[in-house]
Amino acid sequence: MAGLIVMLLVPFSFWYIGADFSKLWSSRTIKLLEDVLTGLLLPELDGAQWQLLLSLSIQTLAMSILAIAIAGVGGILLSFPAAYNFFLPGGLLNPNRQDRNSGFWAWLTLLLTRSILLLCRAIPTPIWALVLLFVLFPGILPGAIALGLHNLGILGRLMAEVTENLDQRPLQALKAQGTPSSLLFLYGVLPLTLPRFLAYILYRWEVCMRETLIVGLVGAGGLGYLLREQLSSFDYQGVIATLGCFVVLTFMVDGISGTVRKELR
Question: CA of 257: how far to CAs of 33, 38, 162, 194, 204, in Å?
Fold first, then answer.
């Protein structure tokens, strides 16, 4: 039944938006495509332009590193109180299920942190960037904070699930020896969670690197800001050079991330 509904929704969607596929091979489309492809030749840039690309590439890389640092640290700090099995009565740090005194504050903390994480990831990165550009100033810092806030919400939620799905056997062994809650956290919870946390952070760093182009397009600096200027002036050779630098950066970050993740296994 679900498959039939999907099959019916696809043609309905095309009909509703009035998709006219004949425009794909119209003379106007072909002429514009020829103009674009003619401009996408091997870019002939002088030394100053290549120097600008190098400088903006470093800015873009710095933006992604700052963003993932914000997201990683914030995600780790908020993930534990956002986990159902951490502060609540009967959880990892509060084994007494009948503790009603701390139960209210534990639930309040959980709801507050999960709401913060939900808010951070519900607002798209470009919207965060526009708000921060208005409040702060144009540059890579608002872009990095925007990327950091959105990815903080995602990482915090993923990390909370890691904590909720921990292997309880080593933790139960520590509890049976009378280990205090603080030591249980340091020697039990952290060693089990940190490798997964770091793997998620590295995955999201790759995403942050790609999203720097988006926040740059709305004015947050880096290669994305240059790309916006080149597109508005129909500088197609500049566009292909900027995109080439961005692809190299993305491959570099993916390679570093993949290498470090292999070392963590």
Answer: 36, 36, 20, 16, 10
What's the pLDDT at 150? Answer: 96
Domain boundaries, the chain: 47-264
Kindly report the pTM of this predicted structure: 0.81
Residues 6+ apart with CB under 8 A from 167: 192
Torsion of CA 180, 184, 186, 192, to 10 degrees: 180
The CATH homologous superfamily of the domain defined by 47-264: MetI-like (1.10.3720.10)
In this prediction, residues 180-208 reach a mean pLDDT of 86
CA distance 1 to 156: 36
| pLDDT (tens digit per residue) in 47-71 | 788 888 899 999 999 999 999 999 9
Collapsing DSSP to helix, strand or coil, 258 comes out as helix
Query: What one-letter code names the amino acid at 112?
Result: L
